[in-house]
Design goal:
alpha/beta; Rossmann fold; Nucleotidyltransferase, domain 5; 2 domains; eight-stranded mixed beta sheet; seven-stranded mixed beta sheet; 19 strands; 32% helix; elongated
């Protein structure tokens, strides 16, 4: 079978180094819509076909996130290239096999490192690693453990080892910056790149316009999501209070569950945050969400139902009483308005700071907001004890949902002074 590998047609010139460089490390940080993951998917297939010694290890922090992301993306890339029939795609075990030679693509998660270090290729060598969403990787030590397991003499005298890393750079404190982007400390034989939506010719005008608008409406978020630059972690409202974890629903089965809902439309997303709360340990587990612009009432109602709101208390943005009534008419039960008033935002945020937040990997909108939600400054640049009213739709939704667990007594919202006293007693 003759395969036409037209790389210039498949990817932007920004990604040509994936196919021409023999550098040990290729690190790409980029914005939304930059096409970096798609380019990596093509790279996996092309290296398998053109280099008989190559086997791939594809790594994410959580194994359970592979099936609908990296596995699906690489499979799609193979069929887009017209070579899908040359590969066998299996979900148990999760792997891809190149049928002519037996070369493989293995998928693993950093949440089970022993399964990474024990992989052995039966044909060729395990000499390529693709770290997708590398920002999620929790430690440099874990990354180094994987890298040290990829070693040995290659079957091809011209062969080489290579690891590629793709990620959105939410914080400039992450170890990826010093390891691959800072000139003084970056690894030898590594190359680093920053790509944006401008490196992707396949985006429609509406999507591009929404990214451009973000620069005006949410500059902190746009720094990462539009320009692909490092996020600034200074002044984070919930610094040190949130983490990402691939927990199961069984592990939170005994905790009460609620839904917080913040309304948006054209420019701002409607955010629905689904969470369980462990009051004894003061941990909030956010297990699901919807986060989308342009949602009509009927679509919000349907999303609430399909994401599992039935039987759960829903606390919604009280500025939209009409929408709350309309949702009730769409058979969305148990919905009540959030409390608003003087100091309600600041007190709500302070209440939230007495908890820790565990965010499931599927919850993308809230995760991004937690990484970019910062305190405001005055005209002299001094920090204020008040968060910026930006990039906080999922956070507002979660705050609404948590209010009954902290600010209600005998089914009534506490007065402002009672809330202040409660927060004082928490030591916030």
């Amino acid at each position: 079978m003759e395969v036409n590998l037209n790389i210039p047609k498949m990817v932007s010139p920004a990604y040509y180094p994936l196919f021409t460089s023999k550098a040990r490390y290729l690190a790409y940080k980029g914005s939304r819509g930059s096409g970096k993951s798609v380019a990596a998917d093509f790279k996996v297939i092309i290296d398998i076909i053109t280099k008989p010694y190559v086997n791939w290890l594809v790594v994410r922090q959580y194994f359970g996130t592979h099936k609908d992301s990296t596995f699906a993306g690489i499979k799609s890339a193979a069929y887009d290239m017209g070579v899908g029939d040359l590969f066998k795609f299996t979900t148990s075990p999760l792997e891809i096999t190149y049928k002519p030679t037996g070369q493989k693509v293995f998928f693993r998660g950093m949440d089970d490192p022993l399964k990474i270090t024990s992989i052995r290729a039966t044909t060729g060598n395990l000499c390529r690693v693709f770290y997708e969403e590398a920002y999620e990787l929790k430690s440099l030590d874990a990354f180094q453990t994987v890298e040290e397991s990829i070693r040995g003499k290659l079957d091809d005298p011209n062969g080489f080892y290579q690891s590629i890393l793709m990620f959105n750079p939410w914080s400039d404190k992450h170890w990826l910056k010093s390891e691959f982007f800072d000139e003084e400390t970056k690894r030898k034989n590594s190359r680093s790149f920053t790509t944006t939506y401008k490196d992707n010719d396949h985006l429609d005008d509406e999507y591009i316009a929404s990214l451009e608008e973000m620069r005006i409406r949410n500059p902190n978020r746009a720094r990462v999501a539009v320009d692909g630059e490092w996020g600034i972690a200074e002044g984070l409202v919930f610094e040190g209070l949130f983490e990402q974890q691939d927990f199961t629903m069984e592990s939170i089965a005994t905790f009460p569950k609620s839904v917080g809902l913040d309304f948006g439309f054209k420019h701002d997303p409607t955010a629905g945050e689904f969470f369980a709360i462990d009051q004894d340990k003061r941990i909030v587990y956010i297990y699901d969400e919807f986060y989308k612009q342009g949602m009509l009432t009927e679509q919000i109602a349907e999303s609430l139902k399909t994401h599992g709101s039935i039987g759960k208390k829903i606390i919604a943005d009280s500025a939209e009483q009409r929408l709350i009534q309309e949702l009730s008419m769409h058979a969305v039960g148990n919905i009540m308005p959030a409390h608003k008033g003087r100091d309600s935002v600041e007190q709500g945020v302070q209440m939230m700071q007495s908890y820790r937040f565990v965010v499931h990997p599927r919850v993308k909108g809230l995760w991004e907001e937690l990484n970019t939600y910062v305190y405001d400054r005055d005209k002299e640049g001094n920090w204020l004890n008040k968060p910026q009213d930006l990039n906080n739709h999922a956070i507002d939704a979660l705050r609404y949902g948590m209010e009954p667990y902290a600010f209600m007594k005998n089914n009534q919202y506490m007065s402002r002074s009672d809330r202040a006293e409660m927060i004082k007693n928490l030591g916030i």
